[in-house]
Specification:
The protein is mainly alpha-helical. It contains 22 helices and two strands. The longest helix is centred in the N-terminal third of the chain and has 34 residues, at 106-139. The protein is globular.
Length: 509
C-alpha cells in the first residue's frame, strides 16, 4: 500500500516542465521509430541511451517508460496502413488492420488499435504497481521444463490456427527453428551450420529477419501486385478522413466486449512476466484466444476489429509485465527492458528483491510515467496525428515503397552495423516473398525463429537435469499445465472448429 501511495504522489512530477517535455518527446520518438520498419523503439532507446548520462535519473527513467509504451503501440500504424508491422509485437495487428485499411476503414482500425493499446497499457501498468511482488513470486514457479512447454505451446497454437494450411505453417515454423540454430551453440562453445563463413558465427540477427520478412518482402509483393495498391488508394480516396473517424462507435466497443480487452490484457501481462517472452508472444496468445472464443472465427484475418483489440491490448500490457522480472530480479523481460536495465545500472541502481523497498522513490515516477503514457499520450497522439498516419497509403506507391526499402536496408545495417546482415535482410526478403507467393504463412516462420533459441536451450537443460528422461515434462506441474493447455487449444482450434484459417494473414495472400 505504501508503494501505491508513492506512485500516486509521483504524478506531481509530471507537472514539472522538464519531465513533461522529455516524456512527450520520448513518446513521439518512440512512436516514429516503431512505425518505421527497421527502426524499432528498441533502437530508439539504444540511440538515446547516451543522453541519459546528462539527465537526472528520475527524468531518464520516465522518458524510457514513455518510449517503451510508444514502441508497443506505434508498430500498429504501418501494420494497418501498408501491412508492414513496425515492430514484431504488431504482427498480429496487421492480420485484421490491413484488411480494414483495404476496405476504407483504416482510421477505424487505428482507433481500435489505440483503444486496445490504452486499455492494455493501463491495465499492465496498474497490475505492475499493485501486484508486482506477488507476480514475481508466481513467475518463479515456472521452472526450466515449464518454460520449454510454454514456448512449444506458443508455436503449436499459431501453427494449428492456420487451418486449411497447417502443413505449410508447420514447415514454415521448422524453417524458422532451423534459422535460429545457425551460429554459436546455445550451451557449448561450438559453431553450427556456418558452412565456413565467419560472418555467420554470431548467427542471423533478429532485425534482418524481421526487416526482410516484412519490409523487403512487402515491397516485392506490392511491386508484383499493382492492382491491389491502386485499389487500396482508391478506397482511401473515397473516404474523407476526419479526426472523429479515429474514434470507434460505442456500439463497436460493446461488440468487442470488455471481457476481450480484459482477458487479452491479462494474457499479455502474465506473458510479459516471463523473461524473454515479449510482446510478440503475448499478442499471439491473446489473438488465438480471441479466435477460439469467437462465435465467428472465420471473420478473423478479414478485418475483424476484435483481432486488433486483442493483439494491441496484449502487447501493451506486456510493458507492465516485462518490468516485473527486470525490477525484482534484474532479468530483462524483452530487449527494451534490457536497455532500461542498463539505465538503472548506469545510475547506480541495482535491480533486485530489495529495490522496491530501498529505492522505491526512484522507481515510482517511472511507473507513473508508464501509466500516463498509456492513458493520456496514446489517445492524444492519435487525435493530433492520426490523419497524418492514415495518409501514408495515399502516397505514391513507387515513392513510398522506395523509401521503405531504403529505410529497411539502412535500418538493418544500423541495428547490427554489419554489411553481411544487411545483405542477409535482402536475402530473407526474397525468400519470404517466394514463401508468401506459394501460400506459406511467414508469421509462423518468424515465430519459430524468435522462440527457437530459448526453446532449444530449455529443452536441453530440462533433459540434462533429468538425465535424458522426457517424462520430466509430464511430472513437473508447471510443464504439465502448459501441455494440458496445448491439448485444449488443439481441441478447440483443430478438432472442434475445423474451419477456414482464422488468422490467414492478408499479407500471405
Amino acid at each position: 500500500m505504501d508503494f501505491i501511495y508513492l506512485v500516486a504522489s509521483s504524478f506531481s512530477l509530471l507537472f514539472d516542465p522538464l519531465n513533461l517535455i522529455y516524456i512527450v518527446a520520448g513518446f513521439l520518438i518512440g512512436t516514429i521509430f516503431a512505425s518505421i520498419p527497421g527502426l524499432t523503439a528498441t533502437l530508439a532507446m539504444a540511440l538515446l541511451l547516451p543522453m541519459t548520462y546528462t539527465l537526472d535519473v528520475t527524468t531518464a527513467l520516465m522518458a524510457c517508460s514513455s518510449i517503451y509504451m510508444a514502441g508497443m503501440c506505434g508498430g500498429s500504424i504501418t501494420a494497418t496502413t501498408i501491412n508492414i508491422p513496425g515492430a514484431p509485437s504488431s504482427m498480429m495487428t496487421a492480420l485484421d488492420g490491413y484488411p480494414m485499411q483495404q476496405q476504407g476503414k483504416g482510421a477505424l482500425a487505428l482507433g481500435h488499435a489505440a483503444i486496445g493499446s490504452m486499455i492494455g497499457g493501463a491495465i499492465g501498468a496498474l497490475l505492475l504497481i499493485a501486484v508486482a511482488p506477488f507476480v514475481a513470486q508466481a513467475s518463479l514457479l515456472v521452472k526450466t521444463t515449464g518454460k520449454f512447454s510454454l514456448l512449444a505451446f506458443a508455436i503449436i497454437v499459431i501453427v494449428i490456427a492456420q487451418q486449411g494450411r497447417m502443413l505449410k505453417a508447420g514447415l514454415a515454423a521448422c524453417v524458422g527453428l532451423m534459422l535460429s540454430t545457425i551460429g554459436l551453440d546455445t550451451m557449448e562453445p561450438v559453431t553450427r551450420f556456418t558452412f565456413g563463413y565467419s560472418d555467420l558465427t554470431a548467427g542471423v540477427d533478429l532485425m534482418p529477419v524481421i526487416i526482410g520478412t516484412f519490409a523487403i518482402a512487402e515491397v516485392l509483393i506490392q511491386a508484383n501486385s499493382p492492382f491491389d495498391a491502386i485499389k487500396a488508394t482508391e478506397a482511401f480516396n473515397k473516404v474523407k478522413i476526419k479526426r472523429k473517424n479515429f474514434f470507434p462507435p460505442l456500439a463497436d466497443i460493446r461488440k468487442i466486449g470488455l471481457a476481450c480487452y480484459l482477458k487479452s490484457s491479462l494474457i499479455g501481462y502474465f506473458v510479459g512476466t516471463l523473461p524473454g517472452a515479449g510482446g510478440s508472444m503475448g499478442a499471439f496468445l491473446a489473438y488465438a484466444e480471441a479466435v477460439r472464443t469467437s462465435p465467428n472465427p472465420e471473420t478473423f484475418g478479414k478485418g475483424n476489429p476484435q483481432g486488433i483489440a486483442a493483439a494491441e491490448s496484449a502487447n501493451n500490457a506486456v510493458c507492465g509485465g516485462a518490468m516485473v522480472p527486470m525490477l525484482t530480479f534484474g532479468i530483462p523481460g524483452d530487449p527494451i527492458t534490457a536497455i532500461m536495465l542498463g539505465v538503472l545500472v548506469i545510475n547506480g541502481i541495482q535491480p533486485g528483491p530489495q529495490l522496491m523497498a530501498g529505492q522505491a522513490e526512484l522507481i515510482a515516477p517511472m511507473l507513473a510515467a508508464l501509466l500516463f503514457s498509456a492513458v493520456v499520450l496514446i489517445p492524444l497522439t492519435l487525435f493530433l496525428l492520426g490523419p497524418y498516419f492514415i495518409k501514408i497509403v495515399a502516397i505514391r506507391k513507387d515513392v513510398l515503397y522506395g523509401v521503405i526499402a531504403l529505410l529497411a536496408v539502412v535500418g538493418s545495417y544500423v541495428s547490427t552495423y554489419s554489411s553481411f546482415q544487411m545483405f542477409m535482410a535482402l536475402g530473407m526478403g526474397v525468400f519470404a516473398f517466394y514463401l508468401r507467393r506459394n501460400g506459406f504463412p511467414v508469421i509462423t516462420m518468424l515465430l519459430g525463429y524468435i522462440l527457437g533459441p530459448n526453446l532449444e536451450e530449455f529443452l536441453r537443460r530440462s533433459l540434462a537435469l533429468s538425465n535424458g528422461d522426457p517424462m520430466t515434462f509430464f511430472t513437473n506441474l508447471d510443464s504439465l499445465f502448459f501441455i494440458i493447455l496445448t491439448m485444449i487449444f488443439i481441441y478447440f482450434l483443430a478438432i472442434r472448429k475445423p474451419k477456414k484459417s482464422p488468422v490467414a494473414s492478408s499479407a500471405d495472400k
